[in-house]
Design brief:
The chain is 27% helix and 24% strand. The chain is built from 6 helices and 11 strands. Strands 9-8-7-10-6-1-4-5-11 form a 9-stranded mixed beta sheet, with helices on both faces. The protein has a two-stranded antiparallel sheet with strand order 2-3. β7 and β8 form a beta hairpin. α3 packs across α4.
């Protein structure tokens, strides 16, 4: 079982986001990139499928600048066999469709029976790229999967829908996006980290995939970014319980206007 995992490098959730001087991008000077949390479930599921089959390879694939090499090494430390990075200049604008086109071109060069990804990439949270890739390479796509079985060239997946669960069956190859609850991602221990240093990490350029840099300028462009306005400081009411209660009711009615 050869499984391809689409991985997104995203800012660590503890990163303090700053706007760049041009007001159109994020200042990435102190941004630490990590594996998008939902993609960790995709990596874990790929490893489980390979282990159940007793043979095959797990390849992780992403698009980004040189910093993504460290993130890919993390996926290799979890147990993936090889990694592929489609290299772009640092700060290059890449919208969802451009990302999908690049991933689709790269996926065609990597033998695989099934492709997995997280249900969404933390950051934009659009859940758009895997579906676009599936359309571009003309394979079935099953989203928000919480249980997955693969057997005899077919998959059976349970996915979340409003008010219940839906069971979907599809022929392979296919693209599946993984939801939390599908599995518990394994921890990359010291042994895995050391082994990851010796595993192949291929750097691929756009021209090698038959693409040109113009693909990065054809989609959506950010014109302005702003941080949310600062919150007003909270009011702390002190005094006797009865006095605090009366003051609270007054504030809820006159300032918050919720009663």
């Amino acid at each position: 079982m050869n499984v391809l995992v689409f991985l997104k490098c995203v800012p660590d959730t503890e990163t303090r986001i700053r706007i760049a001087a041009d007001g159109r991008a994020i200042d990435e000077a102190e941004v630490k990139l990590v594996i998008s949390p939902f993609d960790e479930h995709a990596i874990e599921e790929a490893l489980k499928l390979k282990e159940a089959a007793g043979a095959g390879e797990v390849t992780v694939l992403t698009v980004g600048d040189e910093r993504c090499q460290t993130v890919l090494r993390g996926a290799l430390a979890m147990g993936a066999d090889k990694a592929v990075l489609v290299t772009l200049p640092k700060g290059a604008p890449v919208d969802a469709l451009a990302t999908a086109r690049i991933l689709a071109a790269a996926a065609r060069t990597i033998p695989h029976d099934l492709a997995l990804a997280g249900k969404q990439g933390v950051g934009n949270d659009r859940s758009a790229v895997p579906a676009m890739v599936a359309e571009l390479v003309d394979v079935p796509h099953v989203a928000v999967v919480t249980k997955l079985e693969v057997k005899d060239g077919k998959l059976r997946a349970e996915r979340e829908i409003e008010g219940g669960q839906q069971v979907v069956e599809a022929e392979l190859p296919a693209i599946v996006t993984c939801q939390k609850g599908l599995n518990q991602p394994r921890y990359a221990g010291i042994k895995g980290v050391m082994a990851a240093k010796k595993k192949p990490l291929d750097l691929v350029t756009l021209d090698k995939l038959g693409l040109t840099p113009a693909i990065l300028d054809e989609g959506e462009q950010w014109t302005k970014l702003e941080l949310p306005p600062a919150r007003e400081p909270a009011k702390i009411l002190k005094g006797a319980a009865a006095d605090v209660a009366r003051e609270l009711v007054k504030l809820l009615a006159e300032e918050a206007k919720v009663i």
